[in-house]
Amino acid sequence: MEHPAYVDLLTHTWDMLADIATTKTASGTITLATVDTNDQPQACVVVLRSVDPEHQILQFHTDADSLKFRSLRHNPKAQILVWNETVSIQLRLSVEVNLRQDAESQALWRQVPSPSQVAYGKHPATGAVISGPFDYRTLSSQDKFVVVECHVTKIDYLSLKAEHFRAVFEKEDSWSGKWISP
Ligand SMILES: Cc1cc2nc3c(=O)[nH]c(=O)nc-3n(C[C@H](O)[C@H](O)[C@H](O)COP(=O)(O)O)c2cc1C
Fold first, then answer.
1. Which atom belonging to ligand 1 lies closest to the Cα atom of 49?
2. Distance of alpha carbon 8 from alpha carbon 171, whole angstroms
């Protein structure tokens, strides 16, 4: 098998992420893992809204009442997981988040279509126990809309297509890359 080059793996990583955000190859979702205030890992699916390869930033949106918001406020470190079945590549991205409720998030709120705005703000709040499955109201609340900016610090690229290989890239090493036994 041809020896892969670090630079091509990095380019491929950001291309795959951009494809998810534009829903070209996947359903537009990623898996997010956080650690809650009881040190319990929590994984869930979120929609990848934007990708900025130049600054290594990914964005998703969430509700300020969600567990993940509280978890990330307590511990801003998270991991994003992507499995691209077509090319047999797993990406594990270590990230540090910035929870934004500012002028920029307000500007983005205005671009969220109204059917999607219902995802933000509920009464009782998301996560609360309710007496029946539909005993809640949606509030479409701008106050609960949070833009989560994920700054990528590490990329773990695992290829299982032909001969298995794995590479790790870290921001603190200027993304220079290391081969890892898979
Ligand atoms: C396909 C899919 C897409 C989702 N997208 C989002 C999203 O973009 N943002 C979000 O906060 N939750 C999203 N969710 C819901 C989360 O997975 C999770 O159930 C919810 O946010 C509650 O999380 P919490 O435990 O942090 O409160 C999505 C779920 C699915 C199945």
1. 8
2. 17
Phi, psi at residue 110, to the nearest 5°? -65, -20
User: What's the CA gap between 67 and 157, in Å, rounded?
Assistant: 28
HSE, side-chain direction, 13 A CA sphere, residue 41? 7
Residues near ligand 1 (Cβ within 6 A): 29, 42, 44-47, 60-63, 66-68, 126-127
Q: What is the pTM of this model?
A: 0.96
**SS3 (DSSP) at 37:** coil
Spans of all domains in the chain: 6-180
Q: What is the pLDDT of residues 55-96, one digit of tens each?
A: 999 999 999 999 999 999 999 999 999 999 999 999 999 999
Find out whether 158 and 182 touch, Cβ atoms under 8 Å.
yes
Considering the segment(s) 6-180 as one domain, its CATH architecture is Roll (2.30)
Rounded Cα distance between 46 and 61, Å, is: 8
